């Protein structure tokens, strides 16, 4: 199997690359700059046979050639929110003046030309088109929880990032390409946390349509390494993973190895998948959309 990984210089993407190589899978890693290329090369063993190529998902011309001759891809690109430092003042003042009763969220911005609409929607659509043009047999897409929650902080403070990702998922589902879509919860380690979050030491949980965020079980976070492991397992067990779209969370670190079984992970879903609505597919940037599972609202 020949697999191309996009966003391969990112925190999760680089773990996907490492795991594919560990499994002896012929891997092409796609990064968008020489800086990312060097960063990834430094993380890999010098003897590792991996082809690192440059492409920018906002420029489809650079993207198409990297999909040619591949059997499958793992899409791990994402627009990258930057903290608007000035918004922290409002967060602190709200906390002080309301004695902690009102919590105000900080704001974020995106570099010019790198907004969620451009990277997560149009950039993913370009990747899906390239995958289709090259006849790939499996597309694994790493997206995010909160795709059914327009009022979630990720959407209200980050230019509807997950709603744009959800729109790209709808495009993939209707593309006719065999797919697996994974919606991780909060990725561990969190931003600024120096404590590592090793994979393979937690019970993993799958659900659909953000129920892990609301069930009070605290399973809506997951180590990046476990997300990477589920991506690779999905490629290795296509009979279990194709046509599936699910949320991925985890329990606490058990301090000992916890073997991943894709079959056991997906079994509790009893075949159910994320419910995509027409409104999600037609999202144009307005928050006023119905995202209720199965369109019941
Ligand atoms: N952070 C969370 O808590 C969280 C929660 C749920 C889901 N997710 C999702 O999980 C996935 C992995 O997250 P992560 O934090 O590991 O990712 P990350 O480190 O932010 O990596 C994102 C990657 O996308 C690449 N990228 C951005 N714009 C690009 C462009 N125009 N062309 C090509 N590549 C581009 C970046 O390239 P460079 O290396 O060149 O910058 C980077 O490698 C993302 O889809 C993210 O949205 C995150």
TrEMBL record:
This is SARED1 protein. CDD domains: SDR_a5. The gene is SARED1. SUPFAM superfamilies: NAD(P)-binding Rossmann-fold domains. Gene3D superfamilies: NAD(P)-binding Rossmann-like Domain (3.40.50.720). Residues 7-238 form the NAD(P)-binding domain. GO terms for molecular function: oxidoreductase activity. It holds the Pfam family NAD_binding_10. InterPro entries: NAD(P)-bd_dom, NAD(P)-bd_dom_sf, SARED1-like. The lineage of its organism: Eukaryota, Sar, Alveolata, Dinophyceae, Suessiales. It comes from the Eukaryota.
């Amino acid at each position: 199997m020949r697999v191309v990984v996009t966003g391969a210089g990112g925190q999760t993407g680089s773990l996907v690359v490492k795991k594919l190589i560990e499994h002896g899978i012929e891997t092409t890693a796609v990064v968008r700059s020489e800086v990312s290329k060097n960063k990834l090369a430094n993380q890999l063993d010098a003897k590792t046979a991996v082809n690192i190529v440059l492409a920018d998902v906002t420029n489809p011309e650079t993207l198409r050639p990297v999909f040619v001759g591949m059997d499958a891809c793992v899409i791990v690109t994402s627009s990258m929110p930057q903290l608007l430092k000035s918004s922290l003042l409002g967060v602190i003042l709200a906390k002080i003046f309301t004695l902690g009763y009102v919590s105000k969220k900080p704001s974020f911005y995106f570099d010019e030309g790198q907004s969620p609409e451009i990277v997560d929607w149009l950039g993913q659509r370009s990747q899906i088109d390239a995958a289709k043009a090259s006849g790939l047999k499996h597309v694994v897409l790493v997206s995010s929880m909160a795709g059914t929650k327009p009022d979630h902080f990720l959407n209200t403070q980050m230019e509807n990032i997950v709603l744009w990702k959800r729109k790209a998922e709808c495009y993939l589902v209707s593309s006719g390409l065999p797919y697996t879509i994974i919606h991780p919860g909060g990725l561990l380690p969190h931003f600024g946390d120096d404590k590592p979050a090793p994979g393979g030491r937690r019970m993993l949980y799958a659900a659909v349509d953000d129920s892990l965020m609301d069930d009070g079980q605290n399973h809506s976070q997951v180590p990046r390494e476990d997300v990477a492991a589920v991506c690779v397992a999905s490629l290795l067990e296509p009979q279990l993973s194709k046509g599936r779209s699910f949320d991925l969370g985890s329990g606490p670190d058990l301090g000992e190895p916890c073997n991943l079984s894709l079959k056991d992970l997906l079994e509790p879903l009893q075949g159910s998948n994320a419910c995509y609505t027409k409104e999600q597919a037609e999202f144009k940037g307005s928050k006023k959309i119905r995202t209720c599972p199965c369109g019941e609202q």
